[in-house]
Amino acid sequence: MGPLDGVRVIDLTRYMAGPYGTLLLAYLGAEVIKVEEPGTGDPMRQASLYFQDGLSGHFASGNASKKSLTLNLRHPQGRRILLELAAKADVVLENFRPGTMAKLGLDFETLRAANPGIILASVSGFGQSGPWRHLPSFDLVAQAVGGGMSLTGEPGRPPVKMGVPIGDLAAGVFVALGAVSALYHRRMTGHGEWVDVAMMDVQLSLLNYLAHYFWASGKVPEPEGAGHPNIVPYQIFPTPTGYLAVAVYGDHFWAGFCRALELPELIEDSRFVSNDLRCLHRETLIPILEERIASRPREAWLTRLGEEGIPAGAVYHVDEALASPQARARQMVVEVKGPPGSPMKLLGTPLKFQRAREEIGPPPTLGQHTQEILRDLLGYGDEAVQSLRREGAI
């Protein structure tokens, strides 16, 4: 049983931010019913160069362990069914542009009339308030307006987005956290809640100490590449067999780092004995370290740095990261039966519990569970389901 076993989530989300949030709730054991447009479904079903067992890689990445119900929310019968589902659910999670739920007649007050304890969790580009609330947004825009993109890349070069879609995925984490927090609040008070998560807000929150650096100094942070403005050495070094990440975060690591590199003369060098001095003499120190680290394979340095307890790691390509013994040991790559019945690989859940456990299921085909949900959850007979199909409500 997962920690959220018994919780039912109606998932109205599409693309990436919202589906990742409901994916996390599914990983936690919630029953997630994904409501999709009949005939087309989530646009991510088609948005990919790569397909696994007939499912888009984009779609598969955010929709494991869910059920798919096709429902036309522009049809009166479709809206009625959605409200019937809300009456039997705990959470409705959506990522439409602000105002869309109200236009559909499915705003928070309407949902609450159907279920006084309902939790509506909304994730959007700029949130439900503010002058930008109606503007559309995707991951790229969120990274840009949140400030983080201006810090990513090499000094003097144009800004670049992160290689992973942090604008979408971080918003998904926060909306899932908001939904779980609202569930706890309802347990304590009996009241439902409307959770409002903006992708831009999340990116601003991820500025973290960099915002405080700016407020404290008045200096606008700039790109540092793989380095760090206030810690040396804390960066990437090339080796003959790949790149190596080293994080000497604190003076207590310095002596062990020098021993690992077989450069004992640097330990007491007056220019480098403290992190403040190493930052001051960065231009002198880094070439010495680069030359030394470039002289041996990455694996040799990882062994020596590990023996000295120095934080370090290989800069893995995606294939290497997925195949690492640590990823296997932590079940971060799992194999399930895909919709056609053939093996399909999915990413595992990073949430581990001592007692609770949730098996990951495959992503659903479009409308795979429509009849099951209408029949078993809402009590519709076969004739009523066929009538809804003919009317275009499902």
Q: State Rg.
A: 25 Å
Poorly predicted runs are none
**Element-by-element helix/strand order:** EHEEEHEHEHHEHHEHHEEHHHHEHHEEHH
CATH architecture of the largest domain: 3-Layer(aba) Sandwich
Shape: elongated
Instruction: Supply the number of helical segments.
Output: 17
The separation of the N and C termini measures: 31 Å
Q: In total, how many domains does the architecture comprise? A: 2
The helix-and-strand class reads: alpha/beta
Strand content bin: 5-15%
**Average pLDDT level:** 94
The CATH topology label of the largest domain is Rossmann fold
Percent helix range: 25-40%
Report what the structure shows.
The chain is an alpha/beta fold and 394 residues long. Helix 1 (17-27) packs across helix 7 and helix 7 packs across helix 8 (199-205). It has a six-stranded parallel sheet with strand order 5-2-1-6-7-8, sandwiched between helices. Strands 9-10-11 form a three-stranded antiparallel sheet, with helices on one face. Strands 3-4 form a two-stranded antiparallel ribbon. It has 17 helices and 13 strands. It has helices spanning 17-27, 57-62, 76-87, 100-103, 108-114, 139-145, 166-189, 199-205, 209-217, 254-260, 275-280, 282-293, 298-307, 318-323, 325-329, 370-377, 382-391, and strands at 8-11, 31-36, 51-52, 55-56, 67-70, 91-94, 119-124, 193-198, 234-239, 242-247, 312-314, 333-337, 343-347. The longest helix has 24 residues, at 166-189. Strand 3 and strand 4 form a beta hairpin. Helices cover 38% and strands 15% of the residues. The protein folds into two domains: 8-206 and 330-391, 3-Layer(aba) Sandwich (Rossmann fold), CATH 3.40.50; 234-316, formyl-coa transferase, domain 3, CATH 3.30.1540.
